[in-house]
Hints:
Strand content: under 5%
Strand order of the largest sheet: 1-3-2
Helix content: 55-70%
CATH topology of the largest domain: Fic-like fold
Number of strands: 3
Order of helices and strands: HHHHHHHHHHHHEHHEEH
CATH class of the largest domain: Mainly Alpha
Oligomer: single chain
Number of helices: 15
CATH architecture of the largest domain: Orthogonal Bundle
Distance between the termini: 44 Å
Number of domains: 2
Structural class: mainly alpha
Amino acid sequence: MKKPYLPFTLPNDKLIDKERLFNKVIQANKEIAIYNEKLKSSKVRPDLLMDLFSLKEALESSKIEGTQATIDEMLEYRSDEKNVTDDIKEVTNYYIALQEGVYGLKILPLSSRLIKNLHKTLLGGGVRGGSKTPGEFRSVQNYIGTQGSNIENASYIPPEPQLVDSFMSNLDEFINENDDINDLIKIALIHAQFETIHPFLDGNGRIGRILIPLYLYNKGFISSANLFVSESLEKDKYKYYDLLNATRFNVTDKEDDEDQYKKDIVAVRKIYSDWIDFFLSACINESNKLIDKIEKINELYNVSMNKSIKIINSNKMRQVIDVIFEFPIFTKNKIKSKMTIPVTTLDNYLRKLVEAKIIYSDGKHRNRKYYFYDLINILR
Length: 380
């Protein structure tokens, strides 16, 4: 039977092939910097874009764990907070945990205490995994395997529960230590180490992915917690799993067999570099996608605003368009909750926007919803 794995402690210089990763790191730094500047200079308020991108990240990260919600369903739910499903609850909890992480960093370091708080939020409110001690590190042995597997045929057995606190303390120190390791390489190591420790009974993958934007934001590498890579990880999720699992390598004790130890160090260096290279590629891919989305959303904003003010040139119409970019699926009540506008005026604006085919209505007499498909399609 497999034994629980004993992870490396960090830092560990043997894990990084800086020469191999050099060009990829430069490329990733460049693309992320461009993305940051695009976000900061956006005509659509950056905080609104961040909100939509955060929702998409919550969806993609939860999808890796089997959640089946879609971006349309999440936008529908945000329009009136009705017809909630278990999957929508899970995605919403992830979204809230990410926001809480940003605010939490104002008063706490990025460490076990904050991580436990985020986990409590993630598994709160009766969602799947809610019975597995939310907010507490595990006190029993867990394992990773396919559905129906047991510990004897598990693909991976994390460290014994009595060692979790010790390994998480080491990770806390590594996260908050000032060193010369590139931030992207470091968060790749942090993510791999967190998933290897697997400190919770459930929700480890999602919490591990929340740590990525929180760490980079906390370090000042990005201007807000806005670097999301889960969509790329989800598209290649079996490669993602395989590369993470490969890092759980048992190195021969140097005193037992020095030659084999040297070979193992070469092997583990390649394994970790493969994982970091994959992670950097995800950062590059997602940065490029987000740059493209920002450009398309800004172009759409200009076109939609120009069309709308040709219909009715007023500040109230401009405010309505701003709300629609925040809530691409909405009700009249949603707009009224975001701005002051007479009902008859709003009815007239919405009717004219529907006639101009800028937005579309479901046609219901009660609780009518409106759909801004041009923006929804960019977010899908």
